[in-house]
Amino acid sequence: MERKNLPNPNLIFPVPNVKTVTYVRPTIKNPNIIVGDFTYFSDVDFEEHVTHHYDFYGDKLLIGKFCQIAAGVNFVMNGANHKMNSVSTYPFYIFEGWNQNPPSITDLPYKGDTIIGNDVWIGQDATIMPGVKIGDGAIIGANSTVASNVDNFTIVVGNPAKPIRKRFDEELIGLLEDLKWWI
Question: What pTM did the predictor assign?
Fold first, then answer.
């Protein structure tokens, strides 16, 4: 039997008559933001929520398939980091009139790419800090600030976000990790 009306990951608005839920991938313009099929955002301008993402850093935001990203979620990228080993953390070199030479890119703090696994649920108004890696099946509580890596199928909450429990027992987590249903 042939299935009709298969889900289309290229739709921007996948919920009929609702213009506040968008599939993210077809809206992306920045080549350093890569998002898997069927990941949705409960808002309309995802890239507006990726802050301090400057081309000269070259860092990437990588998000897997079937993620659920609530309204108000922000991804802070490496451009937000300030040098902390100078007399001042103030970035004089970016402002007109200070005549400061910018530091080389290797002298600036760099946490790496931000990587979100598959089937990750990120609650409303959460903030994901630069270079964080969130594992498959993780849940990020509303209003959490994620500043360190999150293991697969782990629920984290708070500021800073801390693990409160695993979603499943280790045996089921192992099976889900092997299954990789989202592929």
Answer: 0.93
